[in-house]
Amino acid sequence: MTLKLFDSIRSDLEEVHRVTDVTDRFPVAEHHNIYTLLELPPLEVDLRPAVVLLTGRLFNCVRAKLVALAAMVQLLFLSVRVHQQVDEGGGPGNDRTRLAVLIGDYYLGRFFGLVGSSGLTGVLLPLSEAVCRIHDGAIARIHLCATPALVMDAVRQETAELIAQACVIAGLEGDAPEGAREELFRYGYNLGMGYGLTDRGLKDDARHYLEEVRIWLAGLPPGASRDALDGLVTHLLDLPGRSLAGAGG
């Protein structure tokens, strides 16, 4: 399903994944099963770079710049993903824990290298702030029991804000006017909330955000990219799920 969903940008997505893939670089990591921390469903693998690519295309962003930006967002996501999946019970002396932390840091290094080589230094502040909010939230939630409010906070900090900032950058690096900043942020934020809640199986709570995405999308330039984003919303709305009212513990 995901392959068809993003057919129009498949070659660009493949380029992003070539830039961000490190699985052949560290054989010792495979020995310690580090890469199982990065085994993701196809939609999770593609979603963030796909949204960046499609948003940038709406505003005629130069391809090389857009692929670099999509790769940057993916590298940050993968870094956070590895760090968050580290086995807390392993202790500082555990080889798997150390390797996971180092590989997460390596992704960050690749991110900074790509920023430098692409010249897109303007992304540093908004993307670094989004990553800081991810970790601020994760630290604050340590040892707390899951409640509906905490789940909403987690989705907002871990998913929605990074996607929102990435959408703003993708549009403004193209020919979107500065006045479109809020529109791009709201579209990306609602998409991130809708996706993050759906990913947790909370479809009923995601519906409001996904319907909001369509409202904001209607104000963006028409064409194949907007149609693909609308198709993504339809796909997310069609997934099974439940409500936060049934989420706990």
Q: Portion of residues in helices?
A: over 70%
Query: What is the gyration radius calculated from CA atoms?
Result: 18 Å
Unreliable residue runs: 243-249
Overall form: globular
Protein name: Polyprenyl synthetase
Organism: Desulforudis audaxviator (strain MP104C)
Describe the model.
By secondary structure, the protein is mainly alpha-helical. It has a single domain (2-246), classed as Farnesyl Diphosphate Synthase, CATH 1.10.600.10. Helices cover 70% and strands 0% of the residues. α2 (10-20) crosses α5. The longest helix has 26 residues, at 148-173. The chain is globular, with a radius of gyration of 18 Å. The two termini are 32 Å apart. Residues 243-249 have low confidence and may be disordered. InterPro entries: Isoprenoid_synthase_dom_sf. This is Polyprenyl synthetase.
Descriptors for this entry?
249 residues; mainly alpha; Farnesyl Diphosphate Synthase
